[in-house]
Amino acid sequence: MKRIVIIGGVAGGMSAATRMRRLDASAEIVVLEKSGHVSYANCGLPYFVGGVIENENDLLLQTPESLHARFRLDVRVRSEALVIDATRKIVLVKDLNTSDEYELDFDKLVLSPGATPIVPPIPGIDRAFTLRTVEDVELIVGAVVAAPKSAVVIGGGFIGVEIAENLVHRGISTSLIEATHQVLAPLDPEMASFVHAEMIDNKVNLFLGSAVTSVTDDAVILYDGTAIPAQLVVMAIGVRPDTKLAKAAGLEIGVRGGIQVNNFHQTSNHDIYAIGDAAEKTDALDGSAMLVPLANLANRHGRVVADHIAGVHTRDVSTFGTAIVKVFGLTIATTGWNEKRLAAAGRKFLAIHSHPNSHAGYYPGAKQMSIKLLVDPTSQEILGAQAVGTEGVDKRIDVIATAMRGGLTAPELADIELAYAPPFGSAKDPVNMLGYISENLLSGLVKSVQWSEVEQEVSHGSVLLDVRSASEFANGSIPGAININIDELRERKTEIPQGDLIVLCQVGQRGHSATLLLNEMGFKARNLDGGYRTWRNSPAGQTVLQVQ
Ligand SMILES: Cc1cc2nc3c(=O)[nH]c(=O)nc-3n(C[C@H](O)[C@H](O)[C@H](O)COP(=O)(O)OP(=O)(O)OC[C@H]3O[C@@H](n4cnc5c(N)ncnc54)[C@H](O)[C@@H]3O)c2cc1C
Known about the structure:
single chain, alpha/beta, binds flavin-adenine dinucleotide
């Protein structure tokens, strides 16, 4: 009988185990898990901190007993794989209850040990909590129940912002410290600023561009000496693939520091597979190696590995890194590459910002969201998208991620027929609109200017023409802009300066119509992409508005 040993009994490992059983009723399947639980909902852990998920049992999706009952899996919790002997095909296992060690031989081995939280060697950091397992969350909840007055979360990634929200939910005065100038690295800065505003509105003390130098008994100290009160400290600056066992077993480690695997998730030893956070992934856009510590891929790849072991046909599964997170009232979702990454790679791109309603504006409850689409100007390929808003964000990013997987070009987003009635969307859905805008720009019908280009364009003589109403203009515009309402452009033609015009409105839509009209009238106009709303939330806008 074939024996398959799986190390790690959560997302990837358990997907592999259960799929394996469905494909092979007779294989012996042993799952080794060093924590006390298997198949727990690690994505739900931050919400247990906040008391949103009240019952710890709700996080425990399966038990060794339930997995044995249904799948006849041999699930061994508190069992740590200590060493893999790849040549003898043996795992040395330690029973953490008894400290006994024993050898377990395998025909196939699947590594899904996950990733470990990064904890830099900062003085005093020992008292900081990290969050990965049920045991970790029990420790944090224990500390939270003691009602600390202050908490500091170090790191503004997905887990950091979720924990900060949940600590606020517990009534704790919470600060979040992030070394870069924005939270949520997959966002570009003009999109991240919406998240900053939401966190500040919800009383998170946000310290951006701030490095921690030490942790004392009651505070976290920043590089400039600022002491931030912190009875509770949570470290969430990121994770690194857990490659300890793989390295010691002589398996190849890839360029990104994860376990190197082929298209079937086989490591350099083909009887040993690796999946989940510990393994490198293949980027869907450029085929490069990636680390994407997300649950969807861990589950997907677990299934692929079981299929491969069972001899079932499998497909390569590359990644766009599609992700979503809730920050208080906001939903933030991303897929593919962002502008920062495209620029760093020297790749040409066209950026499109749009601020549509979640559903038809005339139907009650429509909420504005902000979407950014990145497009290859030559191939028209969709390179990435980001969206921030209160409603409808998940749907739009999921549709775009699906379009990317299906190989649709950006203009083809206009062709997707999305279910529509006023409470749910618009006859021209925000996704369709991105297709229309792409079409207009890629065909050369109109040209756009990005928020980041405004300052330089103006210094080279371009004139900003704000085509909103006088009252909107009075509420704030880009300094130096002149105001002529779009409806008056024809009559007030003589007031319009000659030379390069940058046309702006609130979100870019009236600006688009005005730009076309002005060009027909013989002017040289380009539209400010995403309008005043994008500029105002960008680093350019925020710097100028702060100075005023
Ligand atoms: C707090 C938190 C929130 C998250 N939220 C989201 C989210 O909202 N969306 C999303 O897509 N992803 C989220 N993730 C990430 C997601 O949980 C991971 O990508 C996914 O669980 C990875 O699966 P995995 O099988 O690689 O590792 P894991 O699910 O982490 O499982 C690895 C297991 O292996 C065990 N193990 C390690 N070494 C050994 C050993 N030597 N012997 C035996 N057992 C071992 C560990 O104890 C662990 O239980 C979150 C993660 C955390 C921690």
